[in-house]
Amino acid sequence: MTYNLPDHLLALKQQIGEFVAQEIIPGELELLEMPFNEAAKVLAQKRAIAKSKGLFAPHLPKTHGGLGLSLFEFAFISEILATTPFGHYVLNCQAPDIGNMELMMRYASEDIKNTFLKPLMAGEIRSCFSMTEPSFAGSNPIRMGTTAIIEGDEIVINGHKWFTTAADGASFAIVMAITAPEASAYQRASMILVPATTPGFNLKRNISIMGEAGEGYHSHAEIIYENCKVPLANLIGELGSGFKLAQERLGPGRIHHCMRWIGICERAFDMMCHRAATRALSEDKRLGHQQTIQNWIAESRVEIDASRMMVLAAAEKIDRFGAKEAKNEISGIKFYVAGVLMRVLDRALQTHGALGMTDDLLLSFWYRHERGARIYDGPDEVHKSALARSILKGYGLEVKPG
Amino acid sequence: MTYNLPDHLLALKQQIGEFVAQEIIPGELELLEMPFNEAAKVLAQKRAIAKSKGLFAPHLPKTHGGLGLSLFEFAFISEILATTPFGHYVLNCQAPDIGNMELMMRYASEDIKNTFLKPLMAGEIRSCFSMTEPSFAGSNPIRMGTTAIIEGDEIVINGHKWFTTAADGASFAIVMAITAPEASAYQRASMILVPATTPGFNLKRNISIMGEAGEGYHSHAEIIYENCKVPLANLIGELGSGFKLAQERLGPGRIHHCMRWIGICERAFDMMCHRAATRALSEDKRLGHQQTIQNWIAESRVEIDASRMMVLAAAEKIDRFGAKEAKNEISGIKFYVAGVLMRVLDRALQTHGALGMTDDLLLSFWYRHERGARIYDGPDEVHKSALARSILKGYGLEVKPG
Amino acid sequence: MTYNLPDHLLALKQQIGEFVAQEIIPGELELLEMPFNEAAKVLAQKRAIAKSKGLFAPHLPKTHGGLGLSLFEFAFISEILATTPFGHYVLNCQAPDIGNMELMMRYASEDIKNTFLKPLMAGEIRSCFSMTEPSFAGSNPIRMGTTAIIEGDEIVINGHKWFTTAADGASFAIVMAITAPEASAYQRASMILVPATTPGFNLKRNISIMGEAGEGYHSHAEIIYENCKVPLANLIGELGSGFKLAQERLGPGRIHHCMRWIGICERAFDMMCHRAATRALSEDKRLGHQQTIQNWIAESRVEIDASRMMVLAAAEKIDRFGAKEAKNEISGIKFYVAGVLMRVLDRALQTHGALGMTDDLLLSFWYRHERGARIYDGPDEVHKSALARSILKGYGLEVKPG
Amino acid sequence: MTYNLPDHLLALKQQIGEFVAQEIIPGELELLEMPFNEAAKVLAQKRAIAKSKGLFAPHLPKTHGGLGLSLFEFAFISEILATTPFGHYVLNCQAPDIGNMELMMRYASEDIKNTFLKPLMAGEIRSCFSMTEPSFAGSNPIRMGTTAIIEGDEIVINGHKWFTTAADGASFAIVMAITAPEASAYQRASMILVPATTPGFNLKRNISIMGEAGEGYHSHAEIIYENCKVPLANLIGELGSGFKLAQERLGPGRIHHCMRWIGICERAFDMMCHRAATRALSEDKRLGHQQTIQNWIAESRVEIDASRMMVLAAAEKIDRFGAKEAKNEISGIKFYVAGVLMRVLDRALQTHGALGMTDDLLLSFWYRHERGARIYDGPDEVHKSALARSILKGYGLEVKPG
Asked: B7-100, which class in CATH?
């Protein structure tokens, strides 16, 4: 599709592409190998360079120091950033911070904005989002065991969360908790900002995932909230609006993942083609002469192109009508693009043979950690079912979720 | 994607949709059951109605009595027409005639245009395209056994063709034959118009395909050309330009198929959803409550959407830069959309259970005859390989075709 | 697996193989093209030859004129017969007659046996089995609209059946009908033998399936039972035992299908390999040099072998412990082997290109009609669910069917 | 299939099952987390227990302190051992040592046997096998850069190997090297035993694979052989017999993998079913009530059963006729069972949601490291092609490898 992109975006794409190629890709494997807190020092330098070049925080409004891109425009940038593991981080548009920024811009009080959002936008602190619980199927923001009880002008949180991405080293968490157990399903929960220094915010462990517990930004924590008290003013949005806010946060969150996956796919595709063109099977035969490899290349090319078109279409719809109107498109790309990602990574890995299993390349990192793409923010099965339910409604059939 | 279609196209879509719903769909199963030559009488009436409503020949320039649509615009119309088996026929934009019209508009002599193209465009006669041969792998317009030898101002054709779609009852064939066996591969063949009344044009049989030999427009002939003489003036284009013309014809031909497949997919999808919403498994359970059916609906929805976006993108590219520039996109959609078509038809059929096997619905017709989608105009394997070769060239690897 | 087959079985395999190769395969395509009632005359001669060679009715006990094979032994023979469309018919072990014979041997009265079973076993008459109804999801012998009301010593049947295979020309039907609507689910129905000449046995039409209504043995009828009276003595088994008998009939029925599918797979595989080895792509390149074709051959070989091993294992279990004990194995092979059949036929067809679409080969016949394999006698989805329910029971979870 | 196993094997299966359940499974996750050299101490105790119970080295002849099982018999034991990561190690039948033992029993000199094989069989030392090279596509034991030149009664090895599994801490390597570069392809290479203490045996690194470099038995080394001299007497088999020996080693090696994969599949299947039966989606709904999960359970069950039957059939054939005769069966199970393993692990992981990504379960370990199953000892593509070539030969077509 010819998208007739405006000149400023074309120029930005070029700049970001060069920045990524010069500043991030060359050291990406070394950075991945380091403990994150060590890598963070190098990354801080890269952020400074990005700022100096006017590339920082492309997703933020210009009034907040960003580049003021629409979601549609950001998709083109996000894809480029995703071709290397630290691309988004360097430009401070990484999950979960990007989602927290969007949420806080809209719903946080001025005090909270000044104290927490401003340094977050500047890349001076990090944050996390604490929703998923081990005892409840994660795809449902209604069923939840964590409670938040109002006591005077304080709110007291108790509960058990996990997969709180990047909690280790974060300055604060936005916690989802039940504030009104008797209310109707969609008005039970609220979101509350909890500084990580609050007594009772107990980071139990960084969960070891696919062989790595990680640390800092590269980690996923299990957290016990134990009589964790914060001022009532730390509520994000109104009391009882947690579900609504979660939906608002998750819609764009899902498309952000999809944008990222397309960038990963392109990088893996490039590696696969390069390998196919150069790996010798014999004097005059390269891997790319094998028809099976050709099949993988052709299928991957088309599936990635299809993914991009659908993600851009969904982004444009969100820009114009909001995430709620685009919920079918979001469900669709969430499982479709995740599936393409799995297949492209798998083919690229297989094309590299034993080398593909090693950490001498990026593929094994993505193969491991991006397996979660089919799970987090709603597993494939939930999104397929949601999309089908919405379609079947148009045919007169009501299907209850899950 | 929001395509910002011009008003005239939106209006036309609506008109064509209504026309198809009112005039064609209601009798479609009966028409399919009739021998074609009987159905043709009913279809002639429908064509008259289409003409009277100004809907006839949407693909032709206005100067030739058509609606003057670009390929991109035509895609939206073609999809609607394809939701019923005779849609394209009624508007006289059916293959293989549409391809012959395009070819003859560009390359036929004025005489030929007056004698053959004019009545073809008016829907007064039909035509066919005679390329494929039983002894040669069909995807290659270079290897071919049919010869055409110039004798004075005549040309004498000998050869054995098959899968000449709609030859039965056609007024003429455009025949691909070797005119210069010693020339370089791409300059050996020429295209020649052969009236069906020419002695030596021997229609041996309508090949029985998937249980039906059919007749008239709904048939695929085996033809023996035996000392079949036509005037040298019947050449379409220059001597030796057969391969080039075939490429020009096949590119758009392939995207025409893809457009059609999307329409079939939408109809099958609609049937599947309707069945899911209404078929009772028990008092209070419908087929659509089953998660497997939901998976099929969701996957189909996304795959059809992806197909449409890619077909429209390819159509736009052809409109702007020509079919040659879009050859990768054409190869990509040819196998991708064919695959989607197979899966969507298969799921729709399975959703209908035993009923899906019967001819009480359209599904079994498409299930049988559209299996060819993965074969005709180049099998999947050839298009995948072509796309991969083109990509690998960019990585410095030359791969010889097939 | 080395099965250490007894000598008599090895000899029989060889004899049947030769008989099929000499007597049936050479004319198979012609027979398929003929209307069945014409083909029946040729087939009657073949049956006579089979009888004279002592090959008739391999599935029947020796005391009933058969060869006395166990189910395990029959599997080897059935596979050979299935390599050609009329193999089973010629040896009188075709569905649905084979199932009716098994059922009647066990449960019919002596009178019924003398009048109906004897000539059926001798191949003098044909029969059918009337269970499926258009208004009810077909996989469930509990929900059903056909009623059979006892009036004195008669029983009066009213109902609407379809997909009654081979009803056209059959001498009798075994009809499944509700005799006790108030009874518990599994005791509502009974089986009743209805001679086709009975008033009220109205064969409405042979349903057109995949383009062919067929006739005689090659047809599937829609039947209206309208005050159709037969003697009470025509009950097969006891009143209310219909569900139990259906289960007994369906278990072996399903494995009979699987045995057949393996034979079809082997024939299609042979055609695919032959084509791959002989079809020229260029002077010195055959289709079989293409890696994609090699993939198909290798995958098909392994999947067919896996299918055979599992079918034999299930047959042995049925022989030893009865069909009920082997219900998980039967569910497993029903969907697995049906899936293998689809894939092998699809690959074989694609390997033949356009020729695969024609009726010049057997493939298109199987492609069309064996699509039903994933539907009849319980669709894939039902068998997968049944198997999973049975497994999950062992983990303490009860799941209700459907 | 009823395999009519002899009583001694049934008893052994039971004993091994209990041993694994009591001694290995309870601590398996802790052992996996430890550095291997620490785990080795615990494992040594387990080995002592296994010896005391007469379960050690089931694959070895009784004369060598083993249980004297045939390959067919060993398959049943190997499957049980494979349900936990250290099962084979504890019984000293782990790759690559098991392959080296088999090879050395047949081809090593008495001296070598006394010095190296004896302690290897007793579990006192470990070994490795050094074949794969980074510069050559690994599936081909003909193309290779490592050379071994005879100098007097010594042999001098130079070359670059990688993926030498378990080299770290091994007492010796069996190295494949070119000894006769001018000889015909299959007589160029030889196998040579190189003690790890030999100067010039330079273990460059343990390659980081899927996030873990590991150590000791759990590692895969890159090794530079630099003027590495060993006595000529260290040749295993004759000079130039390397290729032949590699084939002998790889055939059984591949089936050993397949046996192992079946055990992994069974464990993952058990975890999936357990999760499905217990994970709550709501008050009265468990994950196992979802039809998608049921599909996965049913499909996995059948595919695992098919895998086992084919592996047992191949094992029996090897026992009776040797690995060479069973090469088609071995190629078939190599890619088929590897594919089943991928699918079963993927479904089990997805069934566990986010938990499946963590190292709180075994699934993520297998998901990462068993991805290699489709690569090592010949990637899928090579085995499919090999099987197809062998089949096509029977149809008269010669296809050259790769």
From this structure: mainly alpha
